[in-house]
Amino acid sequence: MTAVVIVGVQWGDEGKGKVVDYLSERAEIVVRFQGGHNAGHTVVVGGKKTALSLLPSGILREKTRCLLASGVVLDPGVLFAEMERLGAAGVNVTPKRLGIAAEAQLILPYHSVLDVERERALSDAKIGTTGKGIGPAYEDAASRIGIRVADLYVPARLKTMLERNVAMKNAMFAHVWKCEQKFCAKDLFEKLSAFAERLKPFVTDVSSEVTQAIKQKKFVMFEGAQGTMLDANHGTYPFVTSSNTIAAQACVSAGVGPQVVDSVLGICKAYCTRVGGGPFPTEETGEIGDYIRKVGAEFGTVTGRPRRCGWFDAVLARRAGQLNGVDAVFITKLDVLSGLKTIRVGTEYQGTNSVVLSELESVSVEYKDFPGWDEDITGVRSFKDLPQTAQNYLSELEKIIDCPIAGFSVGPDREQTIIMREQFKSLLAAE
Ligand code: IMP
């Protein structure tokens, strides 16, 4: 086993960071392949919690090399702030530990203003973005006016690009969005020139590094951000993020052929959450939703927004299995369901199997109900030590989603991660 892709199979926040952290002990390379600082996970360093949004959790391991691939959108200020936070906690992010693709696109200050202004204009139809400028940065990339890391090292080109882009954005702010914002190309050029110096030792050729590592049979882990249902092509469009979050994007972004991937591990919670707008067929807006939010501490790492909560949606999980080619899933936060009398799983959508947005908005869900358990399961360390009802829940879930469950977690600590199926020991332990 040399290359594993880790993806979220719901709407993000599935706990991918925890699984990546668990696996990164053996991973020699962790490649983050899309998104930007819209993602977020909390890591604990020396008992102190640190929020990361751009750097993969593998960054905590001295021997693991982390790479930000071409499909990532990067705000240099955010990157350095994260590095400084980690530095203060005793983790020195050196060029040995982190490499950044020369092709990665930059998020510039006008992108977040555009993001916020467009959301304002969309009013009731707003996406509920993180407001970090992710969409506008990807738009510039697709429009071929984006500024990439490599451009930082060609000052004349950078200057021309900034002058052209700033003129366009300022005109949009004044005439389309009718807002006061105005940017100065010269100021941005100076800021970016200072960043360029600091960034230079980190810039690398991700495609060559990953290709080399695969040839040497090193264990490479590709880490996705957000989740399958936020994928720009296959998610609940338009309520999605602006990148491809599914497993195939790992190869596109890293610049390697699809045959390098040995397996795909899908991460999902034992229930569902979503932040922002858009359909959520199994959402619980009453007491159950409040209970899950409280017990599961379901508030955004990046924005602090309360997450919408609901039951596990097996229709979407099956779809995500298909879209990613998932070999096995890992279930996080099983402990959050303890204390619920009945646990529901959405098994089918009445009258349709379609997951296109227009149908999802009004779909009726068929549920299968499972008896819950009262026991505190946070101390459980093997499948057979789970209460019988919890064992049944996982075993039935496996059948309903038609995909093996490789393991589950019963709390945030590494010891609370349990491998459930012998055949996935090698996947999860990457031996
Ligand atoms: P954007 O990625 O900021 O453009 O936001 C688009 C949609 O993706 C919004 O619904 C966000 O709430 C959602 N989103 C973006 N990043 C994450 C994440 O890391 N977890 C969960 N939802 C996210």
Question: Helix proportion of residues, in percent?
Answer: 25-40%
Biggest pleated sheet: 10 strands, mixed
Please work out how many helical segments DSSP would assign: 13
Ends apart, CA distance between termini: 7 Å
Average pLDDT figure: 92
Strand order of the largest sheet: 9-7-5-2-10-1-11-15-18-19
Percent of sequence in beta strands: 15-25%
Cα Rg: 22 Å
Q: Any low-confidence stretches, pLDDT <50, length ≥5? A: none
Global shape: globular
Bound molecules: inosinic acid
User: Count of DSSP E strands?
Assistant: 19
Helix/strand class:
alpha/beta
- The oligomeric state is single chain
Write the layout of secondary structure elements.
Blueprint: E1 3-8, H1 16-23, E2 29-32, E3 41-45, E4 48-52, E5 65-68, E6 73-74, H2 76-88, E7 98-101, E8 105-106, H3 109-122, H4 134-142, H5 155-176, H6 185-199, E9 203-204, H7 206-215, E10 220-223, H8 248-254, E11 263-269, E12 272-274, H9 287-295, E13 308-310, E14 312-313, H10 314-324, E15 328-332, E16 342-349, H11 357-360, E17 365-371, H12 388-401, E18 405-409, E19 417-419, H13 425-429
Parallel strand pairs: 1-10, 1-11, 2-5, 2-10, 5-7, 6-8, 7-9, 11-15, 14-16, 15-18
Antiparallel strand pairs: 3-4, 12-13, 16-17, 18-19
Q: How would you describe this protein?
A:
The structure is a single chain. This protein is of the alpha/beta class and 431 residues long. The chain contains 13 helices and 19 strands. It has helices spanning 16-23, 76-88, 109-122, 134-142, 155-176, 185-199, 206-215, 248-254, 287-295, 314-324, 357-360, 388-401, 425-429; strands spanning 3-8, 29-32, 41-45, 48-52, 65-68, 73-74, 98-101, 105-106, 203-204, 220-223, 263-269, 272-274, 308-310, 312-313, 328-332, 342-349, 365-371, 405-409, 417-419. A hairpin with a 2-residue loop joins strand 3 (41-45) and strand 4 (48-52). The chain binds inosinic acid (IMP).
